[in-house]
């Protein structure tokens, strides 16, 4: 009986592992390109880093946010400030391209203090 219990527990232990739904990208680099489009329904603000590479749905190596939302405006301000000051940033993507179809949606961004 003990063997059966141990076998069942060991067999089901994979359920305790975290599920990963996609490979969100995290990139560190300098802002090389910014883009704002008000005429599209998505009001996308997008940018590229010097180290960006296409992956998954992100076929353009760009990151994007909705420029009409507070979090999008905060990312825009951070990107423009970092570019103006010559600072590198760390960007975490969400592994989806739901703001602009070929650019990964930003989860968070941080400016490197150096």
Layout of strands and helices, then pairs:
Elements: H1 2-12, E1 26-29, E2 31-36, E3 44-49, E4 63-66, H2 70-85, E5 89-93, E6 104-111
Parallel strand pairs: 4-6
Antiparallel strand pairs: 1-5, 2-3, 3-4, 5-6
In words, what does this structure look like?
The chain has a single domain, classed as Beta Barrel (OB fold (Dihydrolipoamide Acetyltransferase, E2P)), CATH 2.40.50.70. With 114 residues, it is an alpha+beta fold. The protein is globular and about 35 Å long. The relative contact order is 0.21. The chain is built from two helices and six strands; from the N terminus they run H-E-E-E-E-H-E-E. The termini are far apart. The longest helix has 16 residues, at 70-85. A six-stranded mixed sheet has the order 1-5-6-4-3-2. It has helices at 2-12, 70-85, and strands spanning 26-29, 31-36, 44-49, 63-66, 89-93, 104-111.
């Amino acid at each position: 009986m003990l063997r059966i219990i141990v076998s069942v527990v060991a067999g089901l232990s994979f359920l305790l592992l975290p599920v990963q739904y996609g490979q969100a990208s995290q990139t560190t680099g300098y802002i090389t390109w910014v883009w704002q489009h008000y005429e599209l329904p998505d009001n996308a603000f997008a940018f590229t880093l010097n180290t960006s590479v296409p992956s998954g749905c992100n076929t353009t190596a760009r990151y994007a946010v909705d420029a009409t939302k507070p979090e999008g405006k905060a990312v825009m301000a951070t990107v423009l400030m970092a570019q103006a000051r010559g600072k590198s940033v760390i960007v975490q993507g969400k592994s989806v391209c739901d703001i602009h179809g070929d650019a990964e949606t930003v989860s968070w961004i941080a400016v490197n203090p150096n």
